Amino acid sequence: MRLVFAGTPAVAIPSLTALADSDHEIAAVITREDAPLGRKRVLTPSPVADAAAQRGIRVIKANRLNESATAEIAALQPDLGVIVAYGGLVREPLLSTPRLGWINLHFSLLPRWRGASPVQRAVIAGDAETGAAVFQLVAELDAGAVFGSFSTAIPADATSGSLLDALSLSGAELLLRVVDELAAGTATAIEQTGDVTLAPKLVIDDARIDWNAPADAVFNRLRGVTPEPGAFTVIGDSRFKLLEAAPVSAQVAGEIPTLPAGIIREHDKKVLIGTATEPLELLRVQPAGKNPMNAIDWWRGVATTEVVAS
């Protein structure tokens, strides 16, 4: 089949690669426009734009799929549109432009976690499992009938970044299978059933840790916002990034006096921080204006017996 593929971040590349290596033809890749990155704000192509260019695939850069972009895509006469984390909405008349419409690879067990941040929200919520689904794109957000899906357990120490990387690989296999079935005319879709939950895009306030929450909730949120937007707390007047943490064992928790929420102390060469329940161990941190470092190395430069985080 003749496809158009819409995607932007690196997690869309496995799907692009799987389709490009198949018998299907990718007429063009649609991705968001170059964005300023780094301290010098250099305009940089998206990861998908780079991957498509390396394969010699035509690239259409658009932040909004407006009338101009719609006309350019329609001129390609695609059989099917495929979306993986593009970051923009497809509306009519573009929604009906491909002969078979559009399908979307979404990283959740629909209808749970419809929206922009399904993996992050699943980790923050402490879900035991997640997965991916390929569904028919419709006007309502992530509400179309599902052609195929799979589920997988969420590892206890997984961050949203590591989990999304794993799902992108398995999801690419699922996506290719569905595209093959659509080409063969054997694909069937099942309407979504069950309770709908929403996964709005994370903002920086989602990444600030509330130490008055229980340890498991704190740990889940820290993992869920890693690597983006990046967990942090405030020490003094400065943002203090929390790159990696871990639960403490019951034995360690029983050995130390009660540690109030947000209080950081060292115990047996471990940097611990209090929550509403048991403490967590800080493993990797990044103080303001400094490079990432091991938490114990940061602590050696602290000239006090405890630090207050908020």
Describe this structure in words.
Helices cover 25% and strands 26% of the residues. The mean pLDDT is 95. With 310 residues, the chain is an alpha+beta fold. A hairpin with a 6-residue loop joins strand 14 and strand 15.
Keyword list:
single chain, 310 residues, 25% helix
Task: Please give the share of residues in helix.
Answer: 25-40%
Spatial strand order of the main sheet: 5-2-1-6-7-8-9
- What portion of the residues fall into strands of 2 or more residues? 25-35%
Low-confidence stretches: none
Q: What characteristic shape results from the CA principal axes?
A: elongated
Q: Which structural class do you get from the secondary structure elements?
A: alpha+beta
Rg estimate, integer Å:
22 Å
Order of helices and strands: EHEEEHEHEEHEEHHEEHEEEEHE
Indicate the topology.
Elements: E1 2-7, H1 13-20, E2 25-31, E3 35-37, E4 42-44, H2 47-54, E5 59-61, H3 67-74, E6 80-84, E7 102-106, H4 118-124, E8 129-136, E9 146-153, H5 160-184, H6 215-224, E10 232-235, E11 238-247, H7 250-255, E12 263-267, E13 270-273, E14 280-286, E15 293-294, H8 295-300, E16 307-308
Parallel strand pairs: 1-2, 1-6, 2-5, 6-7
Antiparallel strand pairs: 3-4, 7-8, 8-9, 10-11, 11-14, 12-13, 12-16, 13-14, 14-15
Helix pairs in contact: 1-5, 4-6
